[in-house]
Amino acid sequence: MKVFYNVQYIDYINRISLVSIGLVREDGDSYYAVNKSLSARHLLADPSLRAAVWTHLPTSGDRTLDSGHPDVKLRHRIAVEVAAFLADVPDLELWSWHAAYAHVSLCRLWGTEADLPDPVPDWTGDLRQEAHRLDIDPDDLPLQLTRRHHALDAARYYLTLGRCLDAAAVADLTEAPGGDRIAAVAR
């Protein structure tokens, strides 16, 4: 079963710091968490993160994360809960958009890639690369109509993209390439 996920993070020169993570299984089950230990100061210092990510986090003021919110958890607890969420997924496949950073961010929950717990795979499928492989222009894919930088909303959107790309992969490849094929399978 495929699990689609999105990770919002602060990208430092020598490390990646988790902000939030959202995962959605093909059966619709989902998980969302915000890192209680995130550096609000660093996040707010970055204008793009402040505008795109901070606005979707549970806050109790202009510059304070709501540490009492049920989605706000310590990174260690998030790691335990993500491992539990993935533990009973049969034939687990992870998928994301621009998956390289997402996978590294996911690995950092436990340390390094070598520290991944069973059954977390050591790779993540990339929806962007799959679209390229299928000769589908990303501009022809369905638009995300929900909060773009909210990790769970983005993961749900990736599920939609995954379904479209799966359908396009099995569709009659003699049809028009690109958007016409996606439009046909997205209906």
Low-confidence stretches: none
**Per the principal axes of the C-alpha atoms, what is the gross shape?**
globular
Order of helices and strands: EEEHHEEEHEHEHHH
Radius of gyration: 17 Å
Protein structure class: alpha/beta
The CATH class turns out to be: Alpha Beta
- Major sheet characteristics: 6 strands, mixed
Helix content: 25-40%
Strand content: 15-25%
Domains (count)? 1
CATH architecture: 2-Layer Sandwich
CATH topology: Nucleotidyltransferase, domain 5
- Taking the alpha carbons of the first and last residues, their distance comes to 23 Å
Question: What oligomeric state is this?
Answer: single chain
What is the residue-averaged pLDDT?
Answer: 89
CATH superfamily: Ribonuclease H-like superfamily/Ribonuclease H
Number of helical runs?
A: 7
Strand order of the largest sheet: 6-3-2-1-7-8
- The tally of beta strands, per DSSP, is 8
Molecular structure report:
Helix 6 crosses helix 7 (179-186). The chain is globular and about 50 Å long. 33% of the residues are buried. The chain is built from seven helices and eight strands, in the order E-E-E-H-H-E-E-E-H-E-H-E-H-H-H. By secondary structure, it is α/β, with parallel strands linked by helices. It has one domain (2-186): Nucleotidyltransferase, domain 5. 37% of the residues lie in helices and 21% in strands.
